[in-house]
Amino acid sequence: MKPLKSKMALNHREERRKRELTNILFSSPDSRDEVEMALALSKSGCEPYRVASALSWKDFESFISKALEDMGFKVMKCFYTSEPRTQIDILAEKDYVILCIDCKHFSKQYSLSYMARIAKKQIHRANLLRMEVNPRARIVPTIVTLREDYPRNICQVPIVPTSLLPEFASRVTGLEEGIISI
Predict the structure, then answer these.
(1) What is the CATH classification number for the domain harbouring 119?
(2) What does the pLDDT look like over 60-110, one tens digit per residue?
(3) How remote is the C-alpha of 86 from its chain's centroid?
(4) In the chain, which end has fewer C-beta atoms inside a 10 angstrom radius, N or C?
(5) At what angle do helices 2-27 and 34-43 cross, to 10 degrees?
(6) Judging by beta carbons within 10 Å of its beta carbon (0-12, 13-18, 19+), is residue 46 exposed, middle or buried?
(7) Structural domain for 145, as ranges
(8) What is the DSSP secondary structure assignment for residue 13, as one 8-state letter?
(9) How many independent structural domains does the chain possess?
(10) Is the dihedral of CA 52, 58, 64, 69 positive or negative?
């Protein structure tokens, strides 16, 4: 029984250390690169939701971009299509798959009908993007969010919580059943 107790104490100390690191990161006014620090915290085992929720919406987009770069994706932030001019938060390309990402830094739960409207807009953006990128690439409209409580796809658009981004990004091919690919 004693080894279990000391393991529990170790887990408690580790959790306390992670909370302290997170508090230092987001309470220090002279933190110059919060995104890099947030990535480091996430890699050290802090919950991605907790780390990312402390970022601004703009830093959240940078956090997602840098996380995808670390996974081997070529990333472009704030891409604009030509006609009509439409903004896409992040394009991430790897192995002829382009993730057309809309980042949603929601802290509250929105209705499924609202999320469906967002998903349909993302499909529209992906269709506009089709005319401007490699015709062999598969474009996957994607929504990345802080929230864990949405369905995994809405209108065949993947809804990816930050905690599942590495798993999703490592497996997406654009050929999955139930996910739209343009």
Answers:
(1) 3.40.1350
(2) 999 999 999 999 999 999 888 877 888 899 999 999 999 999 999 887 778
(3) 20
(4) N
(5) 170
(6) buried
(7) 2-171
(8) H
(9) 1
(10) negative
